[in-house]
Amino acid sequence: MILITSKYLVPKGYSGITLFPFVFMRDKSLAKNPVFVNHERIHLRQQAELLVLPFYLWYITEYFIRRLTYPTQKEAYRNISFEREAYANETDVDYLSQRKPWSFLKHL
Ligand SMILES: [Zn+2]
User: Fold this and answer.
1) 33 alpha carbon to ligand 1 midpoint, in Å?
2) pLDDT digits (tens, 9 = 90+) for 46-70
3) Which of 27, 49, 103, 107 is the most buried (most CB within 10 A)?
4) What pTM does this model have?
5) Could you read off the pLDDT of 23-52 as tens digits, one per residue?
6) 54-63 in b/e burial notation, b at 16+ Cβ within 10 A?
7) Is the bond into 21 cis (omega within 30 degrees of 0)?
8) What spatial distance separates the first Cα and last Cα of the chain, rounded to whole Å?
9) How many helices (DSSP H) and strands (DSSP E) are in the chain?
10) Distance of CA 41 from the midpoint of ligand 1 (Å)
């Protein structure tokens, strides 16, 4: 995990964006936030197990499918399976040590 501070690469309204193996954050204080770091680590694991590029294709495709049923961009984003898994487990610092591969599928 390589943490980089950049408010230009992170979309407005978001704290960070993970582009394996980098995590871009809006504010460098987020590096000390265990919930933020765990959330982005979950995305790094998802990206690694999907060999990175398919992760992004799946993420974007699922976003557009969710957008058909959720009224706002934010809700569509929050309900992408990768985000559901990350938000549901971001406060559990032991989550990744017990996580089985492809666990995001349980959040589809
Ligand atoms: Zn996320």
Assistant:
1) 14
2) 999 999 999 999 999 999 999 999 9
3) 103
4) 0.95
5) 999 999 999 999 999 999 999 999 999 999
6) ebeebbeebb
7) yes
8) 26
9) 5, 3
10) 9
